[in-house]
Amino acid sequence: MPENPRTSAATAFAIGNLSVAALVAGGVFVALPWRWWVVDAPAGVAIALLLVSSVGLLWGKSWGDDVLRASALLLLVAGLVLVAALTMAISFLTGVHGVLGQGVAVGYLVLVAIVVPYLVVFPSVQLVWIRRRAPAD
Amino acid sequence: MEPGRLRLFLVVYAVALVATAAGVHLATRVDDSRPADGVRITSHWEKGRRTARFVGAPDAPLPEAACGKGCVRAVERVVDEGPVPAFSDVLLGIALVPGRDGLKVTYEGRTEYGTPDDLVAWGAAAGKPRLGKVNIKLGLARVDKALEAFAKTFGTDVETLRANASFRRIVVRPDPADGREKFGAPVAPDQIDVARLQHAIELAGRYLARNTRKNGSMRYDVDIITAKTKPGYSFPRHAGATYYMAEVAAYSGHKFVGRAALRAASYLRDRRTQICGQHECVGKGRILTIGSSALAILAYVELTKAGLTDDYNDAIRAGAAFLRAQQREDGEFMHFYDRKEGRPLDKQGQYYTGEATLALVRAFEVTGDPADLEAARRALTYIVGPGWRFFGDHYVYAQEHWTCQALEAIWTHAPHPDALDFCLRYQAFNRAIQDPNGGYTMNPFHPASFTGAGSRTEAAAATLVTAVRAGVDKAQTDLLDDQVRRGIAFLLSAQYDPGPTHLMRRPKRMFGGFPGSPVDLAVRIDMPQHAGSGMLRYVRYLESL
Predict the structure, then answer these.
(1) How confident is the model at residue A136 (pLDDT cuts 50, 70, 90)?
(2) ipTM of the assembly?
(3) What is the pTM of this model?
(4) Which of B28, B137, B140 to substitute to test the interface with A, most A CBs within 10 Å?
């Protein structure tokens, strides 16, 4: 099978995926106080895909783009679900608790601000990049 | 995925999410500042039980039903209402603001109301809600009890009610005709003076004395509705409450409180003192904490210094020796002792190091043994140094009320500038989490607890006294003074003087007590202790000016 060229963009995405894998691992398996398969299983799959896609990108493997596409889609779906859940929680809690809810709303907004770059923008850029380089390959 | 399609998808997602979120917010919000033009709910309460309920139009005359001696008439108007998700207890609990919201349930054409008082009386408001193992401290903890009460009212079961009834949350406001005792009304910090504080301090002491039995044990945690004592007992808290009663007796010369303090101290020395290896220790069971012994020493010392007894010198020496034997080389204490194994357990829990440190300083004032003072100095050095050293340690603090009281106590004998610096930083942290009412909370969704306000106020007052003695600049001491006053104002608003008597089976038993929070109205013995202790430290400061 033909190998993919290792470009600087591929290297950057590989490093980015390793960083996001560390972020997900720390956020789910260290920060969360108890284990729940609904969260743990997708997080485990996402971490595995991110690590494998990093290997594929760094070594220019032919399957690298497929794994990267899968990991980017998984991250994007998880990110959109998480952003939606946090946003709905903000709207519900500020609606119920009024001004008292503003403190937690700010906290949740900070979480949204953390989630969006890593779990929405980053995988979206990856998906666009894969799509654009596909014809050249 | 095509970039154009991805962009379109993300735009549609963002618009739909914002629109849905705005819809949820608008649908769930209630406006408690609206004119009170909803239905009027009149309730008759006698000894913690609702004996009658009348719901009428806002302009209808008040019901003529008699509300005689011993009956309290609560009259409230519904201000606004909104939807609640009743299919889940967790969501329903989160959707109700403790102390403010009530529930309106319509089933088979009939509507019943659960006012905030009802929720307290049903036990739905007490405690902390949990989501699995997580204490979410948000909303009502026991909505299941409210559902059970409604189901009983409608003559059905909870699941049938949940499936077929309509649930709405309501916000109510007292009507001018409301006959309940004012409780929880804010007290202005500038209204706090020596006489007001002395009154509150004595009431708290009398509460504890009244709830000390003949054998010296205490009614540990008294439910406001039933006046019954809840299960559970803590010897450190028994000793702490004894310490406070001894302080009140020493300060005011109140004999009733002094006699109760002596009974409670005797209970510790004569019934709960055990052998821990070569030493005497206080507690019960195989594993004992140093906290019981430490706080018992405080009580014994206070009784001795007040001149109420001189029977406790040996117990003070023995207790101090036990604490010293539990101390490590670095100043920290081994907090537990295994009586079966006959050895200390080098594990640490909350509070005990600070308690032991304060106890050793106070013991020194009776024993005159330099070893006690040196042990206290080493412990304090550990607490404010290596004991709290990590990245970010200047921004986050544990509960250090005993530490700052130890600082005040040791300053006379061996001033400790590092401990003063630590307590000043700790108070700055506390001011950052002090809410506009004077309470302390880091959770914007749950009322501040009175216990936390009491312990932080006693620490702040002790820091203030020490800061003034140490010549700390006035700007800093003014901040401390304002912090203490606001904390005390919050506490005074909560004292049962007489409090919500309509919810009490036996108001006399609860008189002078402090509840856990505005919605958890039970009185545990450490609540009046910490609240009263904070006020006592401040009134002494005011009298010294």
Answers:
(1) very low
(2) 0.77
(3) 0.80
(4) B28
